[in-house]
């Protein structure tokens, strides 16, 4: 079970620009999440793209470090969010299935956010905290984010 999620707000310069980017802000073009599952001993990585959904379970090691490091390298912000034991009461509105409503649903929050920056604000309002220092390639991981700490 993942008790704390790391939520990355991404603007990968290698990704092609899409028509909907006019609605997003620089640094907040995409959102994805990952968390440490201590029971299974793996990092769970979740990201919804326009043509696929990525769910990976990676044991600690070089591959996990490379994947997580790659996500951090293109993130403008990474928040730590500890979801409530039970999802927030009421229906969770989902107008579609793209990264923002998918991650909100994963975290068990009711959010009307349509773009990553709105979800970022919603998570801060719910007590999320910055998990890494720096941005876009200058992120420094904190020791407590690693397994066994």
Q: Report low-confidence residues grouped into runs of 5 or more.
A: 134-143
Mean pLDDT: 83
User: Span between N and C termini?
Assistant: 17 Å
* Discrete helix count: 3
**Integer tally of domains:** 1
Rounded to an integer, what's the Rg over CA atoms?
15 Å
Describe this structure in words.
By secondary structure, this protein is α+β, with helices and mostly antiparallel strands. It has one domain. Helix content is 21%, strand content 26%. It is built from 3 helices and 6 strands, in the order ββββαβααβ. It has helices at residues 62-73, 99-107, 116-125, and strands at residues 2-10, 30-37, 42-48, 53-58, 75-81, 129-130. It has a 6-stranded antiparallel β-sheet with strand order 4-3-2-1-5-6, with helices on both faces. Strand 3 (42-48) and strand 4 (53-58) form a beta hairpin. The protein is globular and about 40 Å long.
Defining key terms:
single chain, 149 residues, alpha+beta, 6-stranded antiparallel sheet, 6 strands, 21% helix, globular
Task: Please summarize what this structure is.
With 149 residues, this protein is of the alpha+beta class. The chain has helices at residues 62-73, 99-107, 116-125; strands at residues 2-10, 30-37, 42-48, 53-58, 75-81, 129-130.
């Amino acid at each position: 079970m993942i008790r704390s999620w790391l939520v990355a707000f991404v603007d990968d310069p290698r990704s092609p620009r899409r028509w909907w980017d006019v609605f997003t802000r620089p640094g907040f073009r995409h959102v994805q999440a990952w968390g440490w599952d201590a029971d299974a001993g793996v990092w769970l990585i979740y990201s919804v793209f326009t043509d696929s959904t990525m769910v990976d379970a990676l044991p600690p090691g070089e591959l996990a470090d490379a994947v997580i490091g790659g996500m951090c390298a293109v993130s403008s912000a990474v928040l730590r969010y500890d979801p409530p034991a039970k999802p927030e009461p009421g229906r969770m509105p989902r107008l579609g299935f793209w990264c923002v409503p998918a991650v909100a649903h994963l975290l068990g929050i009711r959010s009307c956010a349509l773009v990553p920056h709105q979800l970022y604000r919603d998570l801060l309002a719910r007590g999320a905290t910055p998990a890494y220092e720096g941005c876009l390639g200058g992120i420094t991981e904190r020791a407590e984010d690693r397994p066994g700490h």
